[in-house]
Amino acid sequence: MTVMVRECGPMLHAVVQRIVRDPSAVDDVVQDAFLSAYRHWGEFRGDASPCTWLHAIAVRAALRRGRREARRRDVAREYARAMPFMQPRLAEADFAARSAEARELRAEARERIDAALREVAEPFRTALVLKEIAGMPVADVAAVLGVKEATVKTRLHRGRILLRAALLAERPRRTVPPAVYDRATCVDLLRAKMEALDLGVEFPVQDGLVCDRCRQVFASLDVGADACRSLRGKSMPVALRRIIERAIAAEAPRAARPARA
Question: Is the model's pTM score more than 0.90?
């Protein structure tokens, strides 16, 4: 289990930190997840990796705490407002990759990403955190959340749109020409872009087929994904790791004690 603390702990801490709204509760949730995994190790069936199983334990605990803290929100209305196709003005994001404008936009997004994620309502935020920050494939996200892969994809697609809106809320906007195609075609292209993000592959934007509006939207989605990746856990607080390791060591004698007849 101490190996799991060192290998899975940094990413687990990064994930819980973005799900639990109360920063003072993050360490408690992470510690409780490791202790729960240790106590119930005999129930681990090996259907997923140990880290994925551990994430499932931690995410359930984080979501239970989050439900007690959540405020009521009209998520459907928020999502409708965030959809970019009916907006006459959009924040510009389609800059040349090595340009100063692109570097500035990405740096600003990384600085704002935590605050923007807090603006994304559940259950979209948790799916987004597991996929984009923890780097899990869709199948593993589904295993952690106990839902179908199709449900994960729906949550991811809506979460990315909501995150995009939050990230670009303060960016200057410019008038964008009307879409070249009807709205259904743009939605189909957006769905294809989302599928590419789900798979972690490039989506080839062909100038002759994608209008300026879609290019701006696709580029801003890439900015959001890049900002999320910048949060991927590389280390966890040393003090927390030591507390967890001591707690597990204290549990060991009790776990080895034979059950009473």
Answer: no
